[in-house]
Design brief:
Layout (H helix, E strand, L loop, with lengths): L3 E5 L6 H6 L2 E4 L2 E4 L2 E4 L6 H10 L5 E3 L3 H12 L4 E6 L7 H8 L8 E6 L4 H16 L4 H13 L1 E6 L4 H5 L16 E8 L2 E9 L1 H13 L6 E6 L3 H14 L6 E4 L2 H7 L4 E6 L2
Helix pairs in contact: 3-4, 5-6, 8-9
């Protein structure tokens, strides 16, 4: 039986890719006041960013319930006896904990491995895609778990944001507190280390921030996979894709949109890139 792969909506995996690789994406929740939406299900990214920039209060996010995970696991358990469930860093969300609580509550005899990726957005997405490709190639749960453990240690993520306001107000700034108070037109670059948001450096101007992300990606030694994503600036995403292609003409980066959950903290104008080293 083929191992089934589960992740959550913070992985920002394009719908087409998830469908092709048979990846189950469990949505997190977005709260605008009393209104609750499922990330990527009943609110589009355009609708989300429009509301994000016009509402008086910032939205809040919440993890999927254990009941949601149990439903997904039971569905897959009818088709297989092995499931791998890979999720956003436990330091950034309660999603991983919700999945762990749920794994022993399914009805069928099925082995479930829940993994804290210590990552999020397209960095998590790349790890999940690699797991799904291995599953389709016939790898078993133990083999995929070993592969993913190694892959996480080789995965790097870089992002630039227009402002740290959203991370700060959302309580996800972590070690990047040191970047607060930036002077005019200084764009912060951030990364994910040990499951937390860390400061990388400050760059003067948007174009230099994008060029710096490209430079960081290009310094990698022939990466296995690359992914890039934008919140509200598709033209900048294409510029980043072109820049990366000049360094790795044989690589086709996955292109995605930063979804509502991660967008709550990165804000409009965010741009992210991730790679997995060989």
């Amino acid at each position: 039986m083929t191992v089934k792969v589960v992740t959550d909506s913070t992985a920002d995996i394009p719908v087409k890719v998830a469908q092709e690789l048979d990846i189950a994406v469990v949505p997190l929740y977005i709260h605008f006041g009393q209104e609750v939406f499922q990330d990527g299900v009943d609110i589009t990214t355009d609708e989300f960013y429009q509301r994000l920039t016009t509402e008086n209060e910032l939205p809040k996010t919440s993890a999927p319930s254990s009941g949601t995970f149990i439903e997904v696991y039971n569905k897959f358990a009818a088709e297989t006896n092995e499931i791998i469930s890979i999720h956003i860093s436990a330091k950034l969300s309660a999603t991983y904990n919700s999945a762990v609580v749920s794994q022993n509550s399914i009805e069928a005899d099925c082995q479930i491995k829940v993994i804290d990726s210590q990552l999020t957005t397209v960095a998590l997405g790349l790890v999940v895609v690699i797991a799904a490709k291995a599953a389709q190639a016939g790898a078993n749960l133990h083999e995929i778990t070993e592969l993913i453990t190694q892959t996480i240690s080789k995965t790097h993520c870089y992002a630039t944001v227009d402002t740290l306001e959203y991370l700060h107000k959302g309580g996800r700034l972590g070690k990047a507190q040191t970047l607060l108070g930036s002077v005019l037109n200084i764009k912060p670059l951030i990364t994910i280390q040990k499951g937390e948001v860390y400061p990388l450096e400050r760059v003067r101007g948007r174009s230099k921030a994008i060029a710096r992300i490209c430079d960081l990606i290009s310094k990698s030694n022939n990466p296995r996979e690359i992914a890039i994503a934008h919140a509200t600036t598709p033209s900048e995403l294409e510029s980043l894709a072109t820049c990366i292609h000049s360094s790795f003409p044989d690589k086709q980066p996955y292109e995605s949109i930063i979804g509502s959950t991660i967008g709550t903290y990165l804000g409009p104008g965010a741009l992210a890139a991730a790679l997995v080293e060989k």
